Amino acid sequence: MIPKIIIHGGAGKRPRNKTRIEKVRKTIKEVLERSRPVLEERSALEAVVHAVSLLEDNPLFNAGTGSVLQADGKARLTASLMDGSTSKFSAVINVQNVKNPIRIAHLLQRERYCVLAGREALTFARAKGFRYFNPVTAERLRDWKRSQGMCGTVGAVAIDARGNIAAGTSTGGVGNATPGRASDVASTCGNYADGRVGISCTGAGESIVNLALAARIATRVIDGMKLQRAVEKSLKELERAGDKAGIVAVTKKGELFYFYNTEFMSYGFLEGDKLFTGK
Ligand code: GLY
Q1: What is the distance between the alpha carbons of residues 260 and 262, in angstroms, rounded to a whole number?
Q2: Where are the beta strands (DSSP E) in 22-135?
Q3: Ligand 1 center to residue 1 CA distance, Å?
Q4: How many CA atoms lie within 13 A of 226 on its CB side?
Q5: CA-203 nearest atom, ligand 1
Q6: Centroid of ligand 1 to alpha carbon of 175 (angstroms)
Q7: How does pLDDT run across 67-87, given as a tens digit for each residue?
């Protein structure tokens, strides 16, 4: 199998600032290039963690550094990881003052209780050596009250040379939301991988949960539907429910797919020597 990875930096309204769009595209390209050696020399799981943590470190996105703030002015970070080779899902939900929530989700892959939330998730992370880090940027503080509807959740799905699939997603959620609001990313509705397919979603979290979007697409693929048809059908259903989203996905045959019914989604993929970035 040729190792492949597809990533996104969120779906939503098209940013008005063209320079910002170009910066996002350039970042997506750099993240793919820097993830290539990890994917080729290690595994899909490690490549996904690497790609998502690079995206978390860039304040352009709504994940890790640069996460939007909830209505009480706090950034609560959520990230999840699913290893398709074990079908194990792990996640950290609404954790504050850490740099890379995806790395906590990675550590949780080894734990029996692998989804942790809030203060106790932070206690776990600190005990494992995750230091204090303030992910709040001046731009997010300035835009705090008007950040609803912002895009910028990040995600990655990869398949490695052994044919193992992994998916990871990270987000600051919805700007100005009720404090403690939990994202779809904290569930297999927003992030899913097994031996046959991997999916990362971005968009309206509540609707993604209502439709169990990633799990719905995966079930259709497992039952024999073509990936493209499964995604398009599921996003049509989401649209009928009045909402929009974007997804990136990989199948065990090595098919890569992206789709969005929002105005905009930033994404890119790496497939052997081929690197492609959308805008
Ligand atoms: N899909 C990101 C969120 O709604 O939290």
Answers
A1: 5
A2: 77-83, 88-95, 115-117
A3: 32
A4: 4
A5: 1
A6: 10
A7: 999 999 999 999 999 999 999
What is the number of the ligand 1 atom nearest to the C-alpha of 201? Answer: 1
Most informative mutation of 153, 189, 201 for ligand 1 (most atoms within 8 A of CB): 153
pTM for this predicted structure? 0.97
Both tokens of 28, joined, read 């997506």
Which ranges constitute the DSSP H helices of the chain?
Answer: 18-41, 44-56, 101-108, 118-127, 138-143, 205-210, 213-222, 227-240
- Catalytic site includes residue 153: yes
In the chain, how long is the greatest CA-to-CA distance? 48
Q: Which two tokens stand for residue 253?
A: 């045959």
User: Which uninterrupted H or E stretch holds 236?
Assistant: helix 227-240
Q: Has residue 151 got a pLDDT over 80?
A: no
pLDDT confidence band for 279 (50 / 70 / 90): low
**CB of residue 246 inside a 6 A radius of ligand 1:** no
Superfamily of domain 4-277: (Glycosyl)asparaginase (3.60.20.30)
